[in-house]
Amino acid sequence: MLEIKNLKASINERSILKGLNLHIKPGELHAIMGPNGSGKSTLANVLSGKKGYEITGEINFEGESLKAVSVEERAQKGIFLAFQYPLEIPGVNTNNFLKTSLNSILKAKGKKELDTLSFLKLVKEKSSELGIDEKILSRQLNVGFSGGEKKKNEILQMKILDPNLSILDETDSGLDIDALKIIAKGVNSSRDDKKSFLVITHYQRLLEYIKPDFVHVLSDGKIVRTGCGELAEELEKTGYKKIN
Amino acid sequence: MENFEINSDQIDKIEKITTKEKDFRVKNLKLFQAAGFPNKNLEDWKFSDFKNIINNNFEELKCKSHSETINKLDLIKDFEHNYIFLVNGNLYSNNFNYEDINKIKINSYDKSLEHQKTDNSLIHLNHALADNGFSLEVEKNYKFKKVLVIYNYFSKNIKNKILNNKSKIKLNENTELHIIEYTINETHNKFINNSYENIYLCKNSKLRNIYLQKNKSEGFFYKFVKNQLSSNSNYLNFIFSSGLKFNKLDIECDLIGENANCNIMSALHLGKDEHQEIKTFINHLQPNCKSYQKVKNVLSSESRGVFQGKIFVKDIAQKTDAYQLSKALLLNDNAEFNSKPELEIYADDVKCSHGSASGSIDEDSLHYLMTRGLTRENSSKLLVKGFLNEIIEIIKSPTIKKFVETKFEEQIYGH
Amino acid sequence: MRQQELEKAKDYKYGFTTDIESIRAPKGLNEEVIKFISNIKKEPKWMLEWRLKAFNRLKSIKEPNWQKPKYPKIDYQNLYYYSAPKSAKDKPKSLDEVDPKLIETYKKLGIPLKEQEKLAGVAVDAVFDSVSVATTFKDKLTEKGIIFCPISEAIQKHPDLVKKYLGSVIPITDHYFATLNSAVFTDGSFVYIPEGVRCPMELSTYFRINASETGQFERTLIIADKGSYVSYLEGCTAPMRDENQLHAANVELVALDDAEIKYSTVQNWYPGDKDGKGGIYNFVTKRGLCKGKNSKISWTQVETGSAITWKYPSCILKGDNSVGEFYSIAITNNYQKADTGTKMIHLGKNTKSKIISKGISAGHADNTYRGLVDINKNALNARNYTQCDSLLMGNKCGAHTVPYIKNKNSSSTIEHEATTSKINEDQLYYCNQRGLNQEESVGLIVNGFCKEVLQQLPMEFAVEAQKLVGISLEGSVG
Question: What are phi and psi of B348, to 5 degrees?
Fold first, then answer.
C-alpha cells in the first residue's frame, strides 16, 4: 500500500525528517508515536503532498511514486488525512463541501457521481453508524465547531470518502473519552483486509481502543523503534526519553 | 468676512531669511492665494467647510505674529517635568533640568524647506508665513527621565489673528520621549492657529504624545502632522483636545521601516457649537508594520464630530496588521457625526479591518443603572465616562492618567 | 463562428454576436437623433418634450470625474443611440413569431424562453440592443392586473402611470449619465403591481448589447402599489468587441405603503480580454424610493462582468418604518475595475437599512466599495448595519473601501464593519486534501465568502451566479 524509503524532508532549510523508512501493507494499521517536535505532523503533511517542503527519498503508494502527484490527486487516489487542526472555512456548507469532494474523488476513479439524494442517504447512514448528529453537516465547515466536533467531523468525512489509506494526525488530542470512542469506532468499523491506517498519536490512550498491528517510535526525524501493541504501553510507563 | 487676502510684504516682515527661503515662501503664498481657504468641495474638507466656518466667524483676519512678555509661567504642579513654553507659537522659554542637556538640541522654529507636494492650501499658507515654533532633537541612545510638557500658551490680547507655526521633533536611534502638549488659551477672542509639525522617528525610537487642552476657548485650530516611522520605532498618540470652537488634526503617518508601530487613540467630548475633525492617513509602505487607531467621540448640544481615516497598504507591505475603529455617542438631536473610514489595499497577505459605529446611549444600560438608584443624569454621565475611559485607561503612568482625567473632566463639565 | 472566434469565445461564454439585420439611427447625439428615437417608438408629444428637456440639461452639465477607475474620454458624437433588430419592427405577438435566430441567441445565453416558460415559471422580457423582443406570460399576469411590458408600450398604453412616476426617483436633472439616459433611452421594462397583489412569479429581463459602436440606454420603471410584492431579475450579457461600449441604464423603483420590491441583478457584460482591451463601461443609475410607510426595497447584485462597473443602487427611505437592503458581490479579475456600492438615505422614522458587500479582486484588477449612509434629523430611531468584506488574490490587485457615514440624529444607530483578507493557503490545502483541484477549491471558498449575498438570490439565479463566481476567477490562482 505505502512504501517510504529514506524519506528526508526539510522546511526553510531546517531538516525535520532525516531518513524515514516505513512499509504499510493493505489491511494493516500502524501507529506512530513520538515526542513533540519529532516530525509526526510533518510526516502526515508530506504524505498528503503539502507544499513548502524540500523532499528527497521515495514515497510509493499502491506501487506508484507520489513524487509529482498533487495534493488533490493524492486525495483522489485514496489518501485521506484527518487534520490535527481542521480548518474553518466560513460560508461553506459542510454537506455541500463533502458532496463536491466525494464526487471529484468518484469522478477521478471513473465511478458514477452521486446525486444529492443518494449522497444524503449515505451521510445519514454513516453518521448514525458513528452516533454523530448529522446536523453538524448542515453548518458551515468547521465554523464554530468545538474541538471534539471538528475531529468527529473529520472521521465522518473519512467514512464517507472511503479512502484506502487514512492518516490520522493526532486526532485523539484534546478529546474526551466519549469522543475518543467515536473516533475509535470510526476507524475500527472501517478496517478490513484492503484498507490501511497510519495513526499518529502522542499518547497511548487511543491505542487502547484501536489495536495497531505495529507501533513505531519517531524521534528526531527517524523511526527509532518498531514493535507491536506492547511497545505503546511501555512508552506510556517509561516516557520517550528512555527510547533513545 | 468674504475675502481674505495677504500681501506679499508680509513675508518681507519676517526677519533673517535667505533669498532661497524667501522664494520658497513667495511660491507658497501664491499657491495659497490661488486656492484660498479650503472648502467642502475638496474631498479632504467634505465634512469641515473651513472657508465657510472662517467666513461666518471672522469679520477680519490679520496675519501677524504676536509676541508678548509674561510675568509668571503657570506651570503644572502635579508632577515633575521638563518643559518647552510657547507663547502664541513662539519659543518663549525651555527647561530640561531633569535631563542631560548635552543630549538635547532645542531651537526656535524649523526652517527646513519642505518640497513634499501637497494641495492643501493651509500648508501653503504655513510654508509662506510660519515664523514661530520649535525644533527638538534627541541624541542617539538617550531616554528621557521625565515627561516633557509643551505649553502651547495663547495670550489674552490675541484677536482676529491667524498664527502660523512650524515645529519639528526628531528622535535619533534608540531614544525615548514622552510629551504632553498642553494648550492654554487665555484669550476670549477668536483667532486661528495653523501649525505644521514634522516628527521623525529613527530606528528603535519611541514617542508618546498626549494632546490635552486646559480650557474651552474661541480658538480655531488646524494642525498638520507628518510622522515618519523607521524600523522598530513606536509611536503612540493620545488626543484629548476638545474645547476649541474648531479643531482639525490632520495626521499623516508613513511607516517607512519594517516592524514600525503606530497607535492613535482619541477621546473627545464636544459641547455647544464645537466642531472637531480627526483625519488620519496611515501609509503602510514596508512589511510587518502595525497600526492601530481608536477614535471615540461624545457629541452633546450643537456639536459636530468628524473622523476621516484612511489606511493605505502598498503591494510590498505584506503581513501588515492595521485596525481602525471610530465610535460616537450622540447625546443630542442637534449633534452630528460624520465619518469616512477608508481602506486602500494592494497587498494580499494582510490583516486590515475597520469599524465605525454611532448612536445614542444604550437605554438598557441607563435603565440598569437607574434601578440601582442613580438619577438619569448621573447614569448618563457615568456611561459617557465609561465610554471615554477606555482610551484614558491606556495611559500607563498613574500620575499622568490622573492628571489627564481631571483636566478632561474640568474641560467637559467646567468644574 | 470562425475558428478564431471560437478560440476567443472560450474565455467569455457569452461572447458571440448574432447575425441579425438591425436598424440604426445615424451616429451622434443631437435633437434629430432624439426625435428619430421618439418617432420610431411612436411616442406622444409629452414624451419627446421630456426627452428634449433632458437633452437641454445635458448640454450644461459635465461628466463626473471623482470615481476611482478612470477611463478615456467617451466621444458621445461617435456612438449610435438607436439600434434595433430589423425583425422586431413588426413586433411578434407570441414567441412563435420571434425570429428563430433570436431564440437561438437566448438559448446560447442559457435562457431558453420556451423552456423557461414551462419549467421555471419566470416571465421574461428580453431586451436586445435596448429593444424588448418578447415578453412571456403576459396573459397570466394580466389576469392579476399586473402590467409587465416594454416601457415603450407603457408610454402609449399607460401614460398616466408613466407620467406620474418616470423621473420621480431619478429626475432628469440628476447626474450626467442619468440625464443622458433620460434623453436617449430606447426601451426597457415597465412593471406595475396593483394594490394588494403578490406577483405570482419572478419577473425577469435579459439585456444584451449586440450591435457595435452602440451605447445601450434602457430605462426600467417598477411601481409596487400599496401592499403588493414583486421580485424582479435582471441579467446582462454582451458580445466581445475590441472597443469599449457604454451602457448607461436607469432603473427606478417606487414602493408605496406596505409594498415590497426585490430587485436582483446578475451582471456579466463582456469584461474585456486578459490585457484589458475592450469591454463594457457599465455606468448605471439605480434608485429606489420607499415612498410609503412599511415599504421595502431590496437590491441584490452579482457583478462579474464589464471593464468598468460604476454604480450605486440606492434607497431613499422616505416612508416611516421603511426598509432598504443592498447585497452585493463584485468580482474583478485581469484589468477589470469596479467602483460600486450604495446610498441609504434615511428620511422617515424607524427606517432601517442593511448593506452587505463582498468585493473580490484578482489579477491587476481594482475593486472599490463606495457607500453613503445618511441619517437625517427627522429619521428618529433609524438603524443601519453595514458590512464590507474584501478578498484579495495576489498583490497586483487592489481593494478599496470608502464608506461615507453621516449621522444627524441621536436616536439612530449606525454600525459599519469592514475586513480585508486573502484566501488562506491552509484552506486551499484542506480542500485539495479532500480531492478538489485548485480552481474548484477557490470557487468553493469564494462562494463561501459570498454566501450571505448569494442566498438572497432567487433559486434559478443563485445557481447561475455561483457558476459565474467560479468562471470569473478562472486563471487567477497560479
Answer: -95, -25
Partner A contacted by C435 (CB < 8 A): yes
**Is the residue at A21 inside a domain?**
yes
| pLDDT tens digits, B138-187 | 999 999 999 999 999 998 888 888 999 999 999 999 999 999 999 998 88
Report the C-alpha gap between C296 and C259 in whole angstroms: 6
Using DSSP bridges, classify how beta strands C147-150 and C189-193 pair: parallel, antiparallel or unpaired: antiparallel
Q: Domain for residue A132, yes or no?
A: yes
Check if the beta carbon of residue C466 is closer than 8 Å to that of residue C454: yes
* Cβ neighbours around C72 below 10 Å, total: 7
d(CA C382, CA C373): 11
Whether C and B touch, i.e. at least 3 CB pairs below 8 A, reads as: yes
Q: Say which DSSP state B46 is in.
A: T
Q: How far is CA B393 from CA B385, B388, B399, B402, in A?
A: 11, 9, 12, 10
What are C421-474's pLDDT values in tens digits?
888 788 889 999 988 888 888 888 888 888 888 888 877 677 777 777 777 776
On chain C, the residues whose CB falls within 8 A of the CB of B343 are 390, 399-401, 418, 420
Place of cell 503602510: B284
List, as one string, the DSSP characters of B132-164.
BBEEEEE-TT-B-SS-EEEEEEE-TT--SBEEE
Sign of CA dihedral C89, C90, C94, C95: negative
Please list, in sequence order, all residues whose beta carbon lies within 8 angstroms of the beta carbon of residue B234, skipping any fewer than 6 positions away.
B201, B205, B206, B207, B260, B261
The grid coordinates listed for A141 are 465547515
B348 burial (CB, 10 Å; 0-12 / 13-18 / 19+) is buried
- The verdict on residue A80 lying in a domain is yes
**Across the interface, do A91 and C450 touch by the CB < 8 Å criterion?**
yes
Contacting C residues, span 379-398, partner chain B, CB-CB under 8 Å: 390, 392-398
Interface contact B345-C398, CB threshold 8 A: yes
The residues near B333 (Cβ < 8 Å, ≥ 6 apart) are C377, C409, C410, C411
List chains touching C (3+ CB pairs under 8 A). A, B
Ramachandran area for residue B141 (φ above 0: left; ψ -120 to 50: alpha; else beta):
left
Q: Give tens-digit pLDDT for B100-110.
A: 999 999 988 77
The answer to whether the CB of A53 falls within 8 A of the CB of A13 is no
Other Cβ atoms less than 10 A from the Cβ of C70: the count is: 8
Identity at C300, one-letter amino acid code: T
Number of Cβ pairs < 8 A linking chain A and chain C: 79
- The answer, yes or no, to whether residue C202 has pLDDT greater than 90, is no
pLDDT digits (tens, 9 = 90+) for A55-87: 999 999 998 998 888 888 888 889 999 988 888
CA atoms within 13 A on the CB side of A66: 29
Q: How many domains does chain A have?
A: 1
Instruction: Report the CATH number that the domain containing residue A32 is assigned in CATH.
Output: 3.40.50.300
- Compare all CA atoms of chain C with the CA of A47 and give the residue at the minimum distance: C433
Burial zone of C83 (CB within 10 Å; 0-12 exposed, 13-18 middle, 19+ buried): buried
CB contact at 8 A, C205 and C234: yes
| Dist CA A3 CA C329 (whole Å) | 47
Q: Does A184 reside within a domain?
A: no
Provide the residue type at A94 as one letter.
T
Query: Which candidate, C262, C263, C260, C200, places its Cα nearest to that of C224?
Result: C260
- Nearest CA-CA distance, residue B250 and chain C, Å: 18
Cell of C83: 439600434
Residues from chain C contacting residue B318 (CB–CB below 8 Å): 395
